[in-house]
């Protein structure tokens, strides 16, 4: 298996509530090689809102390498020894063979004790096609009728992907809508800039579907797993200055 890339996002808990991509993890599990570097978004976050560097990675311009997954990321994956580990993978629509990078690519790396999340680098194939998975954001803030509609979502159900221009929290946002026009939530904020730029090529090239609906008794952030897919003819995802490593 080749090297896979994850990004680390940080949310400013001050009034801005802004999300910034701040770090890049390159992982080759078979070779036991892991590399972490800060990216342009970390520098911008420092300048704009005073982003504090991670204790584990105290130097903005260092190239961190290790033979084991860094604790910052490993601690965001459930221990395999736990009796509910299989159920945990089931909620993520993963098999028991899933490694920590696969798990982090889906679970978002969320912890209630900090302001970080993890997401995979979106890769497109030779035809420009791509797909990515994420848990639906913001569904807790919608009305009761729409929450009832979420309860009725079906595995594989197609969704519309729509651009919202006047979101009160973020300005631009990407909505997920059912085909009977219930707006059930949003794509993650840290994906919005790329999705908006890409959708400018042709909104009809994008779609989404429901992968899994988890019961409300589990972590609320993992209620609805979405797969978004489409085609980018010209646009290269996650190639802006925010995503470029500060150390080559």
Proportion of residues in extended strands: 25-35%
Shape: globular
Computed Rg: 18 Å
Q: What's the total number of strands?
A: 11
Order of adjacent strands in the largest pleated sheet: 6-11-10-7-8-9
Helix content: 10-25%
H/E series, N to C? EEEHEHHHEEHEEEHEE
Q: Give the count of structural domains.
A: 2
Q: What is the average per-residue confidence, as pLDDT, rounded to a whole number?
A: 91
**How many H/I helices?**
6
> Main β-sheet: number of strands, strand sense, barrel status?
6 strands, antiparallel
The residue ranges in which pLDDT falls below 50 over 5 or more consecutive positions are: none
> Whole-Å distance between the termini?
23 Å
Q: Which structural class do you get from the secondary structure elements?
A: alpha+beta
From the structure above, extract its key features.
248 residues, alpha+beta, Alpha-Beta Plaits, 2 domains, 11 strands, globular, five-stranded antiparallel beta sheet, six-stranded antiparallel beta sheet
SSE layout and pairing:
Blueprint: E1 4-11, E2 19-28, E3 33-38, H1 40-49, E4 64-66, H2 71-74, H3 85-91, H4 100-107, E5 116-120, E6 129-135, H5 144-151, E7 158-167, E8 171-178, E9 183-186, H6 192-199, E10 206-213, E11 224-231
Antiparallel strand pairs: 1-2, 1-5, 2-3, 3-4, 6-11, 7-8, 7-10, 8-9, 10-11
């Amino acid at each position: 298996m080749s090297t896979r890339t994850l990004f680390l996002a940080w949310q400013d808990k001050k009034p801005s509530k802004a999300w910034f991509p701040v770090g890049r993890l390159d992982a080759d599990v078979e070779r036991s090689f892991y590399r972490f570097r800060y990216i342009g978004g970390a520098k911008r976050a420092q300048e704009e809102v005073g982003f504090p560097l991670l204790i584990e990675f105290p130097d903005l311009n260092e190239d961190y390498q290790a033979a084991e997954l860094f604790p910052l990321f490993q601690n965001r994956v459930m221990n395999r020894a736990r009796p509910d580990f299989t159920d945990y993978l089931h909620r993520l629509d993963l098999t028991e063979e899933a490694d920590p990078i696969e798990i982090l690519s889906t679970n978002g790396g969320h912890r209630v004790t900090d302001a970080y999340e993890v997401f995979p680098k979106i890769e497109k194939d030779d035809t420009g096609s791509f797909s990515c998975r994420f848990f639906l954001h913001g569904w807790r803030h919608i009305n009761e009728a729409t929450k009832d509609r979420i309860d009725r979502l079906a595995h594989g159900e197609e969704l519309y992907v729509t651009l919202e221009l006047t979101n009160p929290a973020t300005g631009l946002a990407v909505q997920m809508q059912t085909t009977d026009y219930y707006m059930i939530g949003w794509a993650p904020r840290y994906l919005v800039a790329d999705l908006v730029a890409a959708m400018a090529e042709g909104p009809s090239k994008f779609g989404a579907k429901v992968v899994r609906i988890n019961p409300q008794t589990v972590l609320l952030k993992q209620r609805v797993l979405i797969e978004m897919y489409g085609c980018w003819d010209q646009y290269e995802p996650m190639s802006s200055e925010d995503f470029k490593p500060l150390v080559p």
